[in-house]
Design a protein that fits this description.
Alpha/beta knot, alpha/beta, 60s Ribosomal Protein L30, Chain: A, 7-stranded parallel beta sheet, 41% helix
């Protein structure tokens, strides 16, 4: 059992949790909890190693997970409760975490449903949006400079495994412009001239959603063909970024699924 915070793997894990530069250099990040580690196994993303406490290893579900990991030769190390607390980002760790490579998922060559996030700085909002984007059928998420790091522990926790299935890439604006060629680009904005339900989301589209504090920047507005808005009750100025994204994304999904329902 690992009990020292000076252990090399412990120091490595703590560095990944606390420092973006280390995550980017090493191309690894940390997943915490049984559910997320199970999801990594399900999509065949091999952890570099796994930490678990004795208490977690005694849990039936966690024990099955550890057995599955060992069967494919993933190193699983028992650690003390104090080491787990030091390595975890959560206040009450579940007793298992995995260090694994940042997924390098291929972006579509001809995307039909892209989400661009501009200056979204709140980790919880970004993670929630990624989880929502996956559920809504988004094919790729592009992050602009100034958006919080997608492998930030709070983002990872809120995204609930979306990183393992959805291409998420940080790009400069020139590359984003190239990536959405052929798409109708819409910017979500309070007071936008087009109601979000009036847009034809069945076409190849890209939706830009801006951050919590100051919204999207000038480059987002220059790229968009128009602005879409969500009608709200009188006296309400705006919605939370993640909520607004969800409302629009699921309208798009509903429209895109309608032809399938008609064919059935």
């Amino acid at each position: 059992m690992i009990t020292s915070l000076q252990n090399d793997k412990v120091k490595y894990t703590r560095a990944l949790q606390s420092r973006r530069r280390v995550r980017q250099r090493e191309r690894h990040f940390v997943l915490e909890g049984v559910r997320l580690v199970e999801e990594a196994v399900r999509v065949d993303v091999r952890p570099a190693f796994v930490f678990h406490t004795q208490a977690a290893g005694s849990d039936e579900r966690c024990a099955r997970l550890l057995q599955a990991l060992r069967e494919v030769d993933i190193p699983c190390y028992g650690v003390s409760e104090s080491v787990m607390v030091a390595c975890a980002d959560t206040e009450t760790p579940q007793g298992i975490l995995a260090v694994l490579p940042i997924p390098d998922l291929a972006r579509p060559n001809h995307p039909t449903f892209t989400l661009v996030l501009d200056r979204v700085r709140d980790p919880g909002n970004l993670g929630t949006i990624l989880r929502t984007a996956l559920a809504a059928g988004v094919e790729q998420v592009l992050l602009t400079p100034g958006t919080v790091d997608a492998t930030n522990p709070k983002v990872v926790r809120s995204a609930m495994g979306a990183h393992l299935r959805l291409p998420v890439t940080m790009l400069r604006w020139d590359a984003i412009t190239e990536a959405v060629v052929g798409c109708d680009v819409w910017l979500a904005a309070a007071g936008g001239e087009m109601r979000y339900t009036a847009v034809d989301w069945t076409r190849p589209v890209a939706l830009i959603v801006g951050g919590e504090a100051s919204g999207a920047g000038g480059q987002a507005g220059a790229l968009a063909r128009g602005q879409v808005s969500i009608p709200m009750a009188e006296g309400v100025e705006s919605l939370n970024t993640a909520v607004a994204a969800a409302v629009i994304l699921f309208e798009a999904l509903q429209q895109r699924m309608a032809p399938e329902r008609g064919a059935a």
